[in-house]
Design goal:
Blueprint lengths: L3 E3 L4 E3 L5 H8 L10 H16 L5 H16 L2 H11 L6 H8 L1
Antiparallel strand pairs: 1-2
Length: about 100
């Protein structure tokens, strides 16, 4: 069963891939503290712009997500070889510099 945060108005499951989105929607950090309205406003403005942006392709977006998240869970050589084995280009120098240095 998941872990939950709450205040007097919301209960948010803080487990799973969409836990951050649920917490943001509720205006709560994962420790249950309120997120300042200025932070929520800027976040929503930027996400609205991102949601309106034209996309270049699903496979490119998948690779970008894999690199961004995979760099937190795999060491560089493992992620690089896994990308190549799956049919994508290996890690680019700018990705290595950003995520591993």
């Amino acid at each position: 069963m998941g872990e939950y945060i709450s205040n007097s108005f919301f209960i948010v499951d803080v487990t799973g891939p969409d836990s951050i989105d649920k917490a943001i929607q509720a205006g709560l950090d994962l420790d249950g503290s309120p997120i300042p309205s200025e932070m929520l406003s800027l976040y929503r403005e930027v996400m609205d712009k991102e949601n309106a942006r034209q996309r270049s392709g699903v496979k490119k977006s998948m690779r970008n997500r894999i690199v961004k998240t995979g760099s937190k869970h795999f060491e560089q050589d493992t992620l690089n070889s896994r990308l190549i084995k799956a049919g994508w280009d290996g890690l680019k120098t700018k990705e290595i510099d950003f995520f591993y240095n």
